[in-house]
Amino acid sequence: MPWLRTSRLWMSLHTARCSKDFFVARSYSRQPFKTAPGSLSPLKYTKRIAIGTLKVINFLFAVHLFTTYVGRVSFMAGPSMLPTLAVGGELVIEDLITYRLFPSKMARGDLLIVKSPIEPKKMVCKRLIGLPGDIVCVDPTGQIFPSTEHIVVPKGHIWISGDNAAASRDSRMYGPVPIGLVKGRAFARIWPLKSFKIFTNQITYIK
Amino acid sequence: MNNFWLCRKLWSYLYWTPAIVFLSDHFFHVKTITGRSMQPTLNPDSSQWRDVALFSKFAVREAQEYGRGDIVTIRSPENPKYVLIKRIIAMEGDIVKTLPPYPDLEATVPQGHVWIEGQESMPLIGKCPPGDEHFLSDDSNRFGPVSKGLIESKLLMIIWPPQRFGSVNVKANPTKGLSLNDEQRRELSRHARVQISASSFSSGQ
């Protein structure tokens, strides 16, 4: 490239490269020049791959912890919460951190995500009816128990019930549920998009 | 500059916390046991230290490998802030002969529940001395059967103090009736109070 030789910059570079100082400065520089990945030694190469894999796994762990402690999107289906939640299934954002940080925020009428007391692998979504110390009617519908029977919710327990009493297995069947089984609350429905809704507590008390 | 270096150093450790939290959350964690409710198996009066033990969460969460006789930690059904350490006496379907604070003489453990008891220095059947220390323990005799969902981890072994290092589950062998030690005798008396449900034999539990 003869035209480059004429340029001043090239000439200065050329002289610098020819001089001995250039190589000296290069070998003592803190940041060595990058080498192509093909020229890495096999040991270094495997080390780099191993650390990369560990970082990916670490990231997956972080995602998993987020979904177990902060919030997640989950698919819910079943007839027990009609008409609040559809039978066919929908995507709901679960808020798992509010009750973990502020257990006193639990209020009657909230939509809770609870580990089923009879099937520990299953999660259920039910409405909170009674807090510890409340007197609740065991079965207002009178289907399983006479509707005159009342019970005091014991310490550390809550009373939960599905919105669709006819097709719901809830506290009427297995009694009060320990608060330790409550994982979080249903925050919003995001799918189907046209029925997007943020669940708010619309309970009113009769004075 | 020094501050910057400190941040870099700290970040290089903090970066791996998700992995550590995940492992302690899903596999194994080490905890100090407080309280006297599992005496003399754990925290005996003769020991000058509190026991430190290794717990497996994997056995409870994923494998579901726990049964009668295993020592487990349980989120308290009465106050979710506390975690209790108790021994599983009976699984679902079993019929248990209860101890004093419980209102009924016998209780059937419902589906998805377990019967847990604390006090290890428990009286043999029919010999319940008055003023027995049984009341020290918050267990199923007070609050009834507990949901399996509240079980958090299973005790694998004691790792401190060193002279009691190792597994704590001593399985009694009823055929060697003459050479029973205290631990095995308690194990037998626990068995005698539980009528194991027929379905658990077929399912191989």
UniProtKB/TrEMBL annotation, chain A:
Annotated signal sequence range: none
GO CC annotations, alphabetized: mitochondrial inner membrane peptidase complex
Assigned keywords, A-Z: Hydrolase, Membrane, Mitochondrion, Mitochondrion inner membrane, Transmembrane, Transmembrane helix
Family to which the UniProt record says this protein belongs: Belongs to the peptidase S26 family. IMP1 subfamily.
Transmembrane segments: 49-70
GO BP terms, alphabetized: protein processing involved in protein targeting to mitochondrion; signal peptide processing
The species this protein was found in: Psilocybe cyanescens
Lineage: Eukaryota, Fungi, Dikarya, Basidiomycota, Agaricomycotina
Residues annotated as domain Peptidase S26: 59-139, 148-191
The protein's name in its UniProt record: Peptidase S26 domain-containing protein
Domain of life (superkingdom): Eukaryota
Pfam families, sorted: Peptidase_S26
Localization of this protein: Mitochondrion inner membrane
Residues forming the catalytic site: 80, 126
MF annotations from Gene Ontology: serine-type endopeptidase activity
PANTHER family: MITOCHONDRIAL INNER MEMBRANE PROTEASE SUBUNIT 1, PROTEASE FAMILY S26 MITOCHONDRIAL INNER MEMBRANE PROTEASE-RELATED
Entries under InterPro entries matching the protein: LexA/Signal_pep-like_sf, Mito_IMP1_subunit, Pept_S26A_signal_pept_1, Pept_S26A_signal_pept_1_CS, Pept_S26A_signal_pept_1_Lys-AS, Peptidase_S26
Automatic annotation (TrEMBL), chain B:
Cellular localization per UniProt: Mitochondrion inner membrane
CDD domains, sorted: S26_SPase_I
Database matches in PANTHER family: MITOCHONDRIAL INNER MEMBRANE PROTEASE SUBUNIT 2
Primary enzyme class: hydrolase
Keyword Transcription (UniProt): no
Organism: Psilocybe cyanescens
List of catalytic residues: 37, 86
Name of the featured protein: Mitochondrial inner membrane protease subunit
Phylogenetic classification of the source organism: Eukaryota, Fungi, Dikarya, Basidiomycota, Agaricomycotina
GO terms under biological process: protein processing involved in protein targeting to mitochondrion; signal peptide processing
Keyword Metal-binding appears in the UniProt entry: no
Top-rank taxon: Eukaryota
Family: Belongs to the peptidase S26 family. IMP2 subfamily.
EC nos: 3.4.21.-
UniProt domain Peptidase S26: residue ranges: 17-97
One Pfam entry name: Peptidase_S26
